[in-house]
Amino acid sequence: MSAPSIRARVRAEMIGEIKAVARRHLATDGANLSLRAVARDMGMVSSAIYRYFPSRDDLLTALILEAYDALGDAVEAADAAADPRDPRGRWHAVCRAARAWALAHPAEYALLYGTPVPGYAAPDATVGPAQRPPLALVGILRDGLATGAITPPPAEELPAPVRADLAELAEAFFPGLPEALLARGMAAWTQLFGLISFELFGRINRSMAHRDAYFDHQIRLMADLVGLPARPQVPSEE
C-alpha cells in the first residue's frame, strides 16, 4: 500500500474515532459539543483535532449528515421490504422504521429534531439527506396516485395562499402531486415526527403506557388522512 493510501486510511480511522467519541458526548451532554473535550477523551492535544475538524460546527455537520443518512437508510430499507402493491403497508413500515431508529439513537435524533444548537447554522449539504424520510412518504403517495389507489382530496379545501405555496413546492420537488394531497402528506409527516419527539422527550410517557399500540393507532389515522386504502385482502386457499 502506498504512503498516501496509508495516510488516507489513518485519517479516515481518526475521523471515525472522533465522531464516535463525539456521539458519546451527545448522549451525555447534548449538542453542546466541545472539540477540546473530545480531544481530551482521545488523549490528543487540543490543537491536533483541528486538523480533522476545523471547528465545532464542522464536527456537528458531520454528525448531522451521518444521522440523516442513517435514518434515511432505515426508512428506505423498510419501504423497499414492504409489498409494493400495498401503499398502506408501506406507510406503516416507513413510520415504524423512523420511530425504531429514533428510539435506538435518541441522541442523534435529538440532534436532528430537538432544540436547535445555539450559534449553529446547518449548511446546504444537510438539505438533501434531511429530505429522505419525507420523500419516502411522498413516494408512497405518488405511487398510490399513479395506480389509482389514492383519490386526491378536493383542491377547494385549501386556502388560496396555502395552495399557492404548495404549488411552488410541488413544482420544485414533487411534480404532478396535487396540492391538496401534498398538504395532507405534509400534515402526516409533521404529525409523525411530532409523535416520535413527544415519546422520545417524555411528553406522553406518563399518560400512555402502551406506546407501541398508541403509535400504531396514530399512524393509522395518518394513513386515513392521506387517503391510503385498506390493505388488500389475500385470497384464501380452498
Overview of this structure, please?
There is one protein chain. By secondary structure, the chain is an all-alpha fold. 68% of the residues lie in helices and 0% in strands. α4 (56-81) packs across α6 (106-113) and α8 crosses α10 (179-200). The N and C termini lie far apart (64 Å).
Would you summarize the structure shown here?
The chain is mainly α and 238 residues long. It is built from eleven helices and no strands.
Task: Please describe the structure with a list of short key phrases separated by commas or semicolons.
single chain; 238 residues; mainly alpha
Please provide the count of β strands: 0
The span between the termini is 64 Å
Order of helices and strands: HHHHHHHHHHH
Structural class by sheet pairing and helices: mainly alpha
Number of helices: 11
Q: Which percent range describes the beta-strand content?
A: under 5%
Shape: elongated
Q: Which regions contain 5 or more consecutive residues with pLDDT less than 50? A: 234-238
Measured as a percent range, the helix fraction is 55-70%
Rounded radius of gyration (Å): 21 Å
Mean pLDDT: 91
Give a short account of the largest sheet: none
Q: Which helices and strands occur, and which strands form pairs?
A:
Blueprint: H1 3-29, H2 35-42, H3 46-49, H4 56-81, H5 87-104, H6 106-113, H7 127-130, H8 132-147, H9 160-173, H10 179-200, H11 211-226
